[in-house]
TrEMBL record:
Domain of life: Bacteria
Example GO molecular function: DNA binding
Similarity remark: In the C-terminal section; belongs to the transposase 35 family.
Domain Probable transposase IS891/IS1136/IS1341: 172-282
Organism phylogeny: Bacteria, Fusobacteriati, Fusobacteriota, Fusobacteriia, Fusobacteriales
Keyword terms: DNA recombination, DNA-binding, Transposition
Cas12f1-like TNB domain span: 301-372
Name of this chain's protein: Transposase
Source organism (scientific name): Fusobacterium nucleatum subsp. polymorphum (Fusobacterium polymorphum)
Entry-linked Pfam families: Cas12f1-like_TNB, OrfB_IS605
Alphabetical GO biological process terms: DNA recombination; transposition
Length: 408
């Protein structure tokens, strides 16, 4: 498995200008290559493949191509082909009626402000100085504990007001544990992760810190945008970018802490599988209040899922996702089938509580998590009456351990 070590390079860093210039040159080559590929498409309705365009630039000694080392330039040209293949893929889906949005041809990057990723393959990286890697034909040295045998590539990724150096490296996945112990997760806003296990453990991870970060961010951005409309102040615009970067970094840090906690809990309880309930319509959910829907949009659930996935692989835990349809509406304690019903036997009566058929009050998010667990195990033929009876007893106890994880 390939993971990425990240280094943030801000404008005052000694390598910033050199890296920024490389991203500028990569943009120039990208736009130049894109022009030729676009023209070929307009004339032939086909893709001008990378091998052909690359040979053309080498044979003609193209100025934009020569501005970068050949091993770096070829990856920039490959980006054009990658983006065009995505474009053709969307055209194909639209032709089949499976994509209803407009399909736009890849666009040029801005002449002045535009920057493009710079990719250094292993052959363009020097490992001569211990504890550092050096990028070919540059002064750029990056401090790292990674060894030569692990490093696969380095990418320079331009962002708003900073650049990220990504060092891709190989790490060995552990063999998966072969047992039937499962931890299921229901994702939400107030409780970002409601977790239950087949051994009877249950806990909630408080999501209010994430809500606070988003609320504070939205408030500050709205204030800045209203001032920008009046003044068009460039400093305000830069300030907006800085706030966005800080918000994204804080959320990323928080998600790392949450996912690490969950995986560590799974390891300590000998869990073989973690399953997460997901909803394909999260971003389009309009059946919520305006504020709750805004919180949903601002929480990167798919990033949370991806983090859990790779951390499970590092610990040898099987990771799965399953659709969460009707898991929050059906009553786990009453063994209600997880499907659409005209009338449900239980009901969510508040943000925190779900009332069962017999009037028992249980945590609503824990009810959803148990139904995700049940749905997954039924699909894999591992659900049985003994597990059902044990977990119904545990679920009937209203008290739940609540975990508060601090964000930097």
């Amino acid at each position: 498995m390939v993971l990425v070590e990240k280094h943030i390079i801000k404008p005052k860093h000694k390598y910033y200008d050199e890296i920024d210039n490389l991203c500028w040159l990569s943009k120039n080559l990208y736009n130049s290559t894109l022009y030729n590929v676009r023209q070929y498409y307009f004339e032939n309705k086909k893709l001008l493949k990378y091998q052909i365009i690359n040979k053309m630039y080498v044979d003609t000694n193209n100025e934009d191509y020569r501005a970068l080392p050949a091993k770096i330039a070829k990856h920039t040209q490959m980006l054009v082909e990658h983006n065009f293949k995505s474009f053709f893929g969307l055209l194909k889906l639209k032709g089949k009626g499976k994509y209803d949005k407009p399909v736009k041809i890849p666009k040029y990057l801005d002449k002045k402000k535009g920057r493009q990723v710079v990719h250094y393959e292993k052959g363009a990286i020097s490992f001569k100085e211990q504890g550092y890697i050096k990028l070919s034909k540059t002064n750029i040295k990056i401090k790292t504990k990674l060894t030569k045998d692990k490093v696969q590539f380095v990418r320079l990724v331009p962002k708003n007001n900073y650049i990220v150096i990504e060092i891709g490296y190989n790490i060995k996945e552990q063999e998966q544990k072969l047992n039937d112990n499962v931890l299921a997760i229901d994702i939400g806003v107030n409780n970002i992760a409601s977790c239950v296990t087949t051994n009877g453990d249950k806990f909630l991870i408080n999501g209010k810190q994430l809500k606070y970060i988003n609320h504070n961010y939205n408030k500050r951005i709205a204030n800045i945008q209203s001032k920008l409309k009046l003044t068009h102040n460039k400093n305000k615009s830069r300030y907006k970018s800085n706030i966005t970067n800080r918000r994204n970094n804080r959320i990323n840090d928080y998600l790392h802490k949450i996912t690490t906690y969950i995986v560590n809990q799974a390891v300590s309880k000998n869990i073989g599988t973690i399953v997460v309930g997901y909803n394909k319509e999260w971003k389009q959910d309009t059946n919520m209040s305006k504020s709750n829907n805004q919180n949903f949009v601002n929480i990167p659930f798919y990033r949370f899922i991806n983090m859990l996935d790779y951390k499970c692989k590092l610990k040898g835990i099987n990771f799965q996702t399953i659709t969460e349809e009707y898991t929050s509406k059906c009553s786990f304690i009453d063994d209600e089938e997880i499907e659409k019903h005209i009338n449900y036997v239980g009901k969510r009566i508040s943000r925190n509580f779900f009332r069962t058929k017999k009037g028992i009050l249980i945590n609503a998010d824990i009810n959803g998590a148990y139904n995700i667990l049940k749905k997954y195990m039924k699909e894999n033929a591992t659900w049985n009456e003994k597990i059902s009876q044990t977990l119904v007893k545990v679920c009937s106890i209203p008290s739940v351990r609540k975990i508060n994880i601090r964000v930097s």
